[in-house]
Here is the input.
Amino acid sequence: MNGRCICGSVTYRLADAPLFVQCCHCSWCQRETGSAFAVNALIETDRVAVTGPVRERTIPTASGKGQVLVQCADCGGTILSHYAGAGRAMAFVRTGTLDDATTLSPDIHIFVGTRRPWVVLPDGVPAAQGYYRAADHWSPAALARREALRGARPRDPAAPNPQ
Here is the structure.
C-alpha cells in the first residue's frame, strides 16, 4: 500500500499488511485530528518506507507519556505517529493518508464512551469503552509479529498494549 501527505512532498509505502486497524474515538484524537475519530493502521516502523521532508513533533497524550507525530515538513500533514507504549518500533499510520483509504477498515473501535453521539458503530466490529488487550482481538500472526518487536527492544513492563 502507498500513501502521501496532502501536498505530495512526503510519500510512503507499507512493505507488509498492517497488524491491526483501530478507530479511536477518544477526545484526544478528536482534538488532534479536528474530527470525530482517528483511524490508525498499526505496523512495524521498519516496514514503512517514508520518502520526503518530514519533521517530528511531540504532543501530549492522556497517558502523560506523549505521542510523536511524523509530519510533512512542507504541509504539516501527519503521516504516522509513535506512542510511548510501543516506542519507535511501531508506527500508527493514519489511514486517511493512504492512496486508497478504502482498503482498510477498522478491526475495532476504541474509547467509544467518548464518541460523538451521531457516530453509528457498525455491526460485527468489536467496540471497547477504553483500550483493549491485543491478545483478545489480534490475529495469531499479528501477535507473533508484535512479540518479535518486543524481543528486539526493551519493553516498558507498565505498558501492556501498543498504545
Remarks:
- The first strand starts at residue 2 and ends at 4.
